[in-house]
Amino acid sequence: MWFVGILCEAAVLVCAYKKSALRRYFLLNLYMGGVLVVELVRYKVLSQYGQGSIQYFYYYYYSDAVLTIFLYLALTMLYAHVFSEMKAERYVKMGALLLLAGTAVFSGAVVMQSSARYVTHFFIELSQNLYFVGLVLTYVLWGAILKLRETRTRLVQLVLSLGVYFSLLAANYAVRNLIPSLNYVFLPLAQVVGIFLPIAWAYAFWRLPEEARLAPSRLAVIPR
Amino acid sequence: MMAAIILVCSVVFLLQFFVSYCRSLIAASIKHPLSAEVQDVTGIKNAATGDDFARVVQLLQLCPDRPEDRSGIQAIGAYFGLLGFLRSTLAKVTPSLLAWTELERGQCTYFAAVALERRIAFSRDMFAQQLES
Q1: What is the distance in angstroms between the Cα of A163 and the nearest Cα belonging to chain B?
Q2: Are B22 and B75 in contact (CB under 8 A)?
Q3: Are B100 and A218 an interchain contact pair (Cβ–Cβ within 8 Å)?
Q4: Residues of B with CB below 8 A from A139's CB?
Q5: With an 8 Å Cβ cutoff, is B115 touching chain A?
Q6: Which of A35, A77, A145, B12 could bridge to A150 as Cys pair (CB 3.0-4.6 Å)?
Q7: Which tens digit of pLDDT belongs to each residue from A167-188?
């Protein structure tokens, strides 16, 4: 599963490069490149120290937090694309940074109340909260896409696949918190979910040209 | 309590995103006209219906697999299953929902037929390359 994930992540970068979308969706590709590097190093750490080691524990959670921040930045880039015609890029960046800082402060406050291992617990908490913030932001972006009648097929599919990915992960986290005894099922399931995003993005880059357009009315769940 | 709220929100968002994602996949393929050959093979002459979906998917499985199409076909297969569930439950008491699910199921079939056409073209290319070498 791990190997398949690494292949899919590499496929996104190759597809983006071949279809000249590497620069246009720079932060998305940067995130995918980051995931690729993190996964390769994770494999090295795992094989060197073992799954129960403290090194692997720290590496897993710290790298996950960094990747979540990267993904959050990729999401802000999608916002910038959707609102590009409004020249709102500056406001999007400012809002995103403020929200990121707010999430970090909230996570810090939660950790201060509950644990002695502040730094590690902070990163785990930040990672989980950012996933949920990302999900809500993606939902808001989706609303904006419908409202603004966005027609760029590739952009729409990138946003929707991110939405599916965020919802699956947030649901996974929530179930694991609600029923910790099911961790043995839902922890590996998160890895399966992780493969969805690179496959969907590779498909969007490879199959859909940047010029492809669709009718916005086709996207709404309730037919217009 | 918080985890339960997050779970409910996530599932609602997931359904919304998943349905829209599948509709965007279908929308990207709906403009593609089917060749006469695929129309003959699938039996889709005028409008595709949901009843043809299983047959078209069976035909798809007979063709060599194309990795780039696989996730889309699986997603549409899951969407078709979701529509089938809606059709046999909620749609029975809501006629407008029944009409909508029928339309969507037909479009799923059309998506599968377009994927079949691509796979046939891919197989032909592979065969031609083998003949050349």
Answers
A1: 6
A2: yes
A3: no
A4: 13, 16-17
A5: no
A6: A145
A7: 998 888 888 888 888 888 888 8
**CATH number, position A111:** 1.20.1070
Give domain status of residue A142, yes or no: yes
* A196 pLDDT more than 70: yes
**C-alpha span between B95 and A24 (Å, rounded):** 45
Question: B52 and B109 in contact (C-beta within 8 Å)?
Answer: yes
Say how far apart CA A105 and CA A128 lie, in whole Å. Answer: 14
> A207 lies in a domain?
yes
User: CB-based contact (8 Å) between B35 and chain A?
Assistant: no
Task: Please report which confidence band the pLDDT of residue B78 belongs to, taking 50, 70 and 90 as the band edges.
Answer: very high
pTM equals: 0.83
Of residues A160, A177, A199, nearest to B21 (C-beta):
A160
Interface residue B27 vs chain A (CB under 8 A): yes
Residues of B in contact with A205 (CB under 8 A): none
Give B70-77's long-range contacts (Cβ < 8 A, gap of 24+).
Answer: B71/A196, B71/A199, B71/A200, B71/A203, B72/A203, B72/A207, B72/B25, B72/B111, B72/B115, B73/B112, B73/B115, B75/B18, B75/B21, B75/B22, B75/B25, B76/B22, B76/B25, B76/B26, B76/B108, B76/B111, B76/B112
Q: Total structural domains in chain B?
A: 1
The complex's ipTM?
0.78
Range of the domain at B24: 2-132
- Residue B123, phi-psi category: left (phi > 0), alpha (psi -120 to 50), beta (remainder): alpha
How many structural domains comprise chain A?
1
- CB-CB contact of B23 with A209 (8 Å): no
Is A224 a domain residue?
no
